[in-house]
Amino acid sequence: MNSFPANIYFTEDPQQTLKNCLAQFNPDKVAILVDENSFNYCLPFFADIENLQVIEIESGEKNKIIDTCSFIWEQLTAMGSTRKSVLINLGGGVIGDMGGFAAATYKRGIRFINIPTTLLSQVDASIGGKLGIDFNGLKNHIGVFQDPDAIILCQNFLKTLPIRQLKSGFAEAIKHGLIYDESYWQEIREKPFALNLDWNLLLEKSVMIKSDVVKKDPHEKGLRKILNFGHTLGHAIETWHLETHRDLLHGEAVAAGMILEAQMAYELKLIEKKHFEDIISYIDSVFERIATFPTFERIKSLLSQDKKNQGAMVMFSLINGPGSCLFDIVVNDDDILNAIQFYQSYKTKN
Ligand SMILES: NC(=O)c1ccc[n+]([C@@H]2O[C@H](COP(=O)([O-])OP(=O)(O)OC[C@H]3O[C@@H](n4cnc5c(N)ncnc54)[C@H](O)[C@@H]3O)[C@@H](O)[C@H]2O)c1
């Protein structure tokens, strides 16, 4: 693997790093997008930077929608932002995805800087330039690819993050090891999840993996699809929870999706029994299984909207050994159903 891309900054002093970026971009206006949590816990890190115009939105996936985007465009317009202005996205993946989309489309695109403040957005969402919003209940249905002008990563933001949110981000780190780097997966697996994990190590390894994959395939024509391991069924489950107002975090849905899709990989003889069991038992040691599930028919109709589909065929990304993943795998309905039954049988077995 190569070195980190030039627009990614690891820092213990995010304020100074941001000052350096702004000095380089020399913007006429600087807006900073926050939600109530990043306003309270993260904005104070930048207290010495003058003339930041704050745009605050309500937190949560349910707000990653066009109405909130319109609000951001209105605020940018009201403050007189021009093509020379910069938008800083300070928050988790919701802020990064939506703020990036708003910036990439405002006046056909202005500069934006991601300062991710959740583990999930630091190890994954802020990297790779996938920007967008949910639309008509479908996850990330509208969006663009555009790389941020800078990504500022600082683990100190994680100190205020609730453990449930840390675990949610950890799911993406598990995925990175499973799809791309067996030694990273083994390192993760050696230790139980704990609050004193080495976040910098996770950050460096995950960011390296994600940026390496994205560099090879920026627009997801091929290899980049491996990053969707656990996400095909994971997104269907997450979308159903969102539409039925049930509480489920992105990483929790991905953890469920990885169990389901590892089971499919095992059934298709892509992974050995031992690896399959190692994966399931580790994920189960971190995450509780989801109790409420959509019907199979609803899952199928949600899968029909998956962005990797080719015509009517749903394409999965499935691991074929620890540290390796295939993409564009067609799985028949029986195997999907078997995986769901396996997932749901857990409680009776244990
Ligand atoms: N673009 C991509 O490549 C990509 C990849 C993975 C996930 N995503 C998207 O990312 C989103 C999930 O991101 P997320 O898990 O960061 O969720 P999130 O943005 O909803 O943040 C989770 C919660 O943490 C709060 N928070 C943020 N920083 C905090 C801090 N430092 N201290 C305390 N609380 C803080 C937020 O206000 C929110 O309540 C989903 O929309 C998902 O689709 C995008």
Structure description:
Strand 2 (30-35), helix 2 and strand 3 form a beta-alpha-beta unit. The protein is 47% helix and 16% strand. The chain folds into two domains: 8-160, Rossmann fold (3-Layer(aba) Sandwich); 163-192 and 218-349, Dehydroquinate synthase-like - alpha domain (Dehydroquinate synthase-like, alpha domain). The protein is an alpha/beta fold and 350 residues long. The strands form three sheets. The chain has a six-stranded parallel sheet, with helices on both faces. The mean pLDDT is 95. It is built from 14 helices and ten strands. The site of nicotinamide-adenine-dinucleotide has 30 residues, from helix 2, helix 4, helix 5 and helix 6.
Give the helix/strand layout.
Layout: E1 8-10, H1 14-25, E2 30-35, H2 36-41, E3 52-57, H3 66-78, E4 86-91, H4 93-105, E5 111-116, H5 119-125, E6 130-135, E7 138-145, E8 150-153, H6 163-180, H7 182-190, H8 199-216, H9 231-243, H10 250-267, H11 273-286, H12 296-303, E9 315-319, E10 325-330, H13 333-344, H14 346-349
Parallel strand pairs: 1-8, 2-3, 2-4, 4-5, 5-8
Antiparallel strand pairs: 6-7, 9-10
Bound molecules: nicotinamide-adenine-dinucleotide.
